[in-house]
Amino acid sequence: MYDLLIKNGRIADGSGMPSFIADVGIVDGRVADVGRLSGPAQRTIDAEGRVVAPGFIDNHCHFDAQATWDPLCTFSPQHGVTSVIFGNCSLTLAPVKPDDHDALAMMLSRVEAIPMESLQEGIPWEWTTFGSYLDFLDQRLGVNAGALVGHSAIRRWVMGDESFQRAEATPAELEEMKQLIRDSVRQGALGLSFNRNSGHMDLLGRPIPGIVPPVEELYELATALRDVGAGVVQCGAAYPLEIRDGFATKLGEYSQRPVVYNQIVHHPSEPDRWKRHLDIVERGIAEGKQVYPVINPRPQAQRFTMRNAQVFDRMPTWRDVMLGSVEEKAAAFRDPAMRDKLRAEAVDGKDLPSGALPVTWERIFITRTLKERNSAYKGMSIAAMAEAQGKDVIDGFLDLVLDEDLGTGLQNSQSGADGGVMGRLIASPYTVIGLSDAGAHVVFEAGYGYSTLVLGKWVREEGALSLEEAVRKLSFMQASLFGLHDRGLLRPGFAADVVVFDPDTVGAEEPDEVNDLPGGLMRLRQKATGVDYTIVNGEVLLEEGEHTGAYPGRTLRSRAPVPA
Ligand SMILES: [Zn+2]
User: Fold this and answer.
1) What digits encode the pLDDT tens for the residues 64-83?
2) Residues above pLDDT 90, as percent of the chain
3) Which of 2, 6, 150, 538 ranks highest by number of CB atoms within 10 Å?
4) What is the whole-number distance in angstroms between the Cα of residue 62 and the centre of ligand 1?
5) What is the CA(190)–ligand 1 centre distance, in A?
6) How far apart are CA 464 and CA 57, in angstroms?
7) Ligand 1 mean position to 6 CA, how many Å?
8) Strand (E) positions, 110-221?
């Protein structure tokens, strides 16, 4: 007797082999059989006309906090995601000393744009070690959840407040950090995460600890994974360093583990760079390395208001102004001398740190105006609006937002990636699809639907890759990289994480707003179309996007090899 029998679906089993019409029988949370099955079943789902695939594994989330109050990690399972991996970009909530709760939350709040009020209200902090954090999560999960241990948390634990300033760690501190990493991976962390984004800071404007030391510290810490023989290395903002110095490749050499790094992109300003980058990746693969860039399939579009924005973080004057209260910001924006400074950075690109660029005002759009007299500007870019008013761009911009008490709705649409290039990058066998950033930037964007976007836009509409290849990249490839050895394929013995979707309608909807964060705060929601069932460990978690009440998820833990 099967617990669940999914009949007549088109099976894309995750391996990339051609799909076929068959049935999937599930017993005790695992796939029992795939084929033409007639056995009796507790429950039968008719999947005729639908695709049946392994559930998607989202490798780049920031649900570290949300998972503690929302065990479904909404809105990811709505898009067929059955496993989420967080702890990315050096930011984790474990290990943590009892006095450091706010310190870690302030990093997560500022870098990943999650309201501090919600973090303070929502996180129960009933753990210290990485293992006790996973044990806490294991009490109630809708999806499966795995986590990396983050460099910033490790450095904070060992060096305290000095982790925000002192670049050189002592040999003893390095050894303690390595021991914490080894312990965390042995307790189940799926790997170690780093970050090299020089704009990342906490709520007090301090650089997060992971970006303070030179890269040599990261190389040294990466050897902790080699010691354990498990885990993957993840690194945010690694690609300029990889192109220049082979940084991610070196992380692979020091760790002797797979490396997944952010990110391969197409820059309109440097139209050939993606090709040079992909050449480097392909050369590494030819040499037998396991170093993979992440490709973000989503259009880059951040929503924000001048009450709260991350768009200006890499420009020092703007950054300092944006850290102030709404009143302080408004006063600064009114001050003509301050406007000159802001203009010098954001228009002329003066006095910017290396790698930072002035703002492309043609690509910042007005999505919502609060006052009737400004409604004609809705949909226009800031550049076009200022020109229409005969104003300099900074004056036009700041006059508008001041008139609306900094509440004007804005959208930063920077990438505008060339569709053909994007299709090639997604289809490359050497890129890892990801960067949903699900659970992060919750008021600015909603990337939960990266998987349904791949299936709707890049498979169905653009034909950039086959259905089978897309499913492979969303499931089996992710499971293989992150050491989830019994997931990502619909084969007997594998965990029964399954998504059933309609290939003709699957897609990601435009985000809307909901006030469901702890404290009643707003975040963006993203719904899916065409996803019929999300099944986790053999139990139906969502049916037509609605929660069934089941909590079948569990933590995903690393498996260190058996010692000789
Ligand atoms: Zn991230």
Assistant:
1) 999 999 999 999 999 999 99
2) 83
3) 150
4) 7
5) 15
6) 21
7) 35
8) 144-147, 149-150, 191-195
